[in-house]
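Hey, I'm writing a tutorial for new members on how sequence and structure tokens pair up, and I'd like a real worked example in the thread rather than a made-up one. If someone can provide the structure for the chain below, I'll link this post from the tutorial.
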Amino acid sequence: MMSKDKKMSAGADYQESLQPGSFKYIWRHLSHDSGAIVGMICIAAILIICVLSPYIFKYDYSKISMADKNALPSAEHWFGCDELGRDIMVRVFYGARYTLSIGVLSTAISASVGVALGSVAGYFGGRFDSILMRALDILQAFPQLVLATLVSAVLGPGLDKCIIALAISGIPGFARMMRANILNVRGQEYIEAAKSIDCSTARIITKHVIPNAISPIIVSVCMGIASSGLNASALSFLGLGVQPPEPEWGAMLSSARNLIRQYPHMAIFPGLFIMITVISLNLIGDSLRDALDPKLKD
């Protein structure tokens, strides 16, 4: 039988593991939030089908069949076929690979660069902070999609160019947010204590400042993936993103726009999956925000 001291120790360990900000605390919050559960299920289902699509579907996403040109949804083609007789369901799930990968990679790049710039600017201040803030003011004078469109127009169309354009357009937001968080953290007593025992500046920033200022960034990353995925579809729709015949959702909408009145199914299904993905990621982000910042709860 477990002794009283061991029980108390186990209980203390469990309570410590459920401290706000811990992984178990965040997961427990997400698993008890119905909106987050729906979002995670939808994203997981899309990802699983994307990975298994070569083994699930009998059609290739690029296979042209003029006999099935503009075919309506049926038992043979659940989502119908496009103007070249290609199966839309297969192209939708293959297209998720492009849209989600663009969202994840571009957000990861912009968050990494933005966090680094914001951390240095917020901690040291001075001339670098002033120059960086003025540069970010110039970039943020343009809406994110407009800035991404300008960069894409300069770099040219393509998957890698689209990722770079969206990453550049997302850096100012992450840098400003991280700088504001650093300004709140750097005056705390534990930072002064670290300085008093001669901790190096690099150690203070990496071990004390960034970990205590990163929570809002985690939420923004989740929201940023949704926003970047949506903007990626917009760039592809404008002809500046992933190029045909690759089945990116925005490119599919662009090719369907001239036939939307006669064959609305060609635009409905790609648009529906864009909506589901964005809403799912936003639901997860909202739940993460509540878990990482309890002050925002009602």
